[in-house]
Amino acid sequence: MTKRKSDEAVPKLFASYPPKQYRRLVMRHGQRGRLYDFAFQFSETANRLADTFTGEPHDDTMLIPWMYLHRHAAELVMKDAILRAAQLRRRGGDTDPSLTSSAVKERLKGKIRHRLMALLDELDKHFKALSLDRTPPETRRTLAHLSELDPSGESFRYDGDLPKHDDRIDFPALDEALRNMYGILAASIDVLEQYADWQNDMLEAAPDESPDDDEYRELIEDF
């Protein structure tokens, strides 16, 4: 647990509701984690919401917020994987100027932003350079369909760009597809961690020089 510094004020919204019973407690963890950790929270919330599905008309109200959670989880986990993959390429001796930490960060924040397929193409480019398997076709197809529905990250937030007609969907089938999609994207983190272990052995690197170091933490500060 990260202790609050004496000069750090509790946000007023949280301070207004101090926990008095353990069973009523919820905690916001203040220590900055990885983008992957934040992505997992969005994915987990989407899954817990989907588990409340009953097939009744009132379930319609959760569809768009639920899809936004999945979309944001996919975006964050891909950005995390891209940052890691670019770092591994640099550590492996790749001198491509597009791999510098500033170039990667600028590309993610300026050029690519919230475009899912551009993120996936960037990730697959790094995986190819590292001689790793690229994203399976089924995952790419599901992500492409999700991106088509919300190309800029605005449709699920403001509704204006969504079609004006009604759509009828098999929710459990869609839920399975989006869970599988996120699972494959998140697995890229595991693949990169295994690659990092191999790279450490090859470079005889010390444990504190792994991709989970200060450089990585600095990279995610603006995300």
Q: Using the CA coordinates, give the radius of gyration.
A: 20 Å
Parts with pLDDT < 50 across at least 5 consecutive residues: none
Largest sheet: none
Shape: globular
Q: Determine the number of helices (DSSP H or I, runs of at least 4 residues).
A: 9
Number of strands: 0
Whole-number mean pLDDT: 89
Tell me the structural class: mainly alpha
N/C terminus separation: 22 Å
Percentage of residues in strands? under 5%
Percentage of residues assigned to helices: 55-70%
- What pattern of helices and strands is seen along the backbone? HHHHHHHHH
How would you describe this structure to a colleague?
There is one protein chain. This protein is mainly α. The chain is built from nine helices and no strands. The longest helix has about 35 residues, at about 170-205. The two termini are about 20 Å apart. The relative contact order is 0.14.
List keywords for this structure.
single chain, 223 residues, mainly alpha, 9 helices, 59% helix
What is the topological layout?
Blueprint: H1 12-15, H2 35-50, H3 63-91, H4 101-112, H5 116-129, H6 137-149, H7 155-158, H8 171-203, H9 214-219
